[in-house]
Design goal:
By secondary structure, the chain is mainly beta. It is built from two helices and eleven strands; from the N terminus they run H-H-E-E-E-E-E-E-E-E-E-E-E. It has helices at 8-12, 39-43, and strands at 77-80, 85-88, 100-103, 109-112, 123-127, 139-141, 152-155, 158-159, 172-175, 179-182, 194-199.
């Protein structure tokens, strides 16, 4: 009866080569090295096309998708544009809540608190414009300077249509940044209700 097991001498003397091992053998990784690598871990090598970097190693990442907390990457430089501009962020202090990464030149960026953004206080609603409502006066002003194209005028709950100074051009036209003038056919009558909305 022939031998049913492989001894170390068979391998050392090349008595058994690759051609002698069936493709159906599927050797368990417990038989490899010290046996500490599982079959699942070993199978992950399938498709690896370059050297494997350890957790503490560095490796070049090109067109890779990083997912999960375990794949966080520490970076000191951002590449902008077509790849020819490098933005140094290594000197940026950790950000505070609400800050954004802001350019401080063509090759640098820091965390900064945004300024000049819109808030609720920028919007004015249901303000009664200044001016006599007597069937004669056609000129009214707002309490604040309004941003261009944001003024909305309402007469007795109906929104008026803005136009230009030409007679008959819609219901009213804007003058400067705080005023507006009603067209003759829309001049407010005594006891009419006027309100305006705008962004200042």
């Amino acid at each position: 009866m022939g031998r049913t097991r492989i001894i170390s001498g068979d391998v050392n003397t090349s008595a058994i080569g690759n051609a002698h091992i069936s493709t159906d053998a599927f050797i368990d990784t417990a038989k490899l090295a010290d046996g500490s690598i599982s079959n699942a871990e070993f199978q992950r090598l399938n498709g690896v096309g370059s050297s494997v970097a350890g957790i503490s190693d560095s490796a070049t990442l090109t067109n890779k998708i990083m997912t999960g907390v375990s794949n966080w990457v520490a970076a000191g430089v951002l590449i902008a544009g077509n790849g020819s501009t490098f933005v140094n962020i290594s000197g940026a202090v950790p950000p505070s809540n609400g800050q954004v990464l802001t350019a401080v030149g063509t090759t640098g960026a820091t965390w900064q608190t945004p300024s000049g953004g819109l808030t609720v206080s920028n919007f004015v609603y249901n303000e009664v414009p200044l001016g006599l409502v007597n069937g004669v006066n056609d000129r009214y002003t707002t309490a604040n300077t309004f941003t261009a194209n944001t003024l909305r005028v309402y007469k007795n709950g109906l929104r008026m249509l803005t136009g230009d100074a030409q007679a008959g051009s819609n219901d009213y036209y804007v003058t400067g940044t705080t005023g507006f003038v009603f067209q003759p056919a829309q001049i407010p009558q005594t006891n009419d209700n006027l309100q305006v909305d705008y962004m200042k």
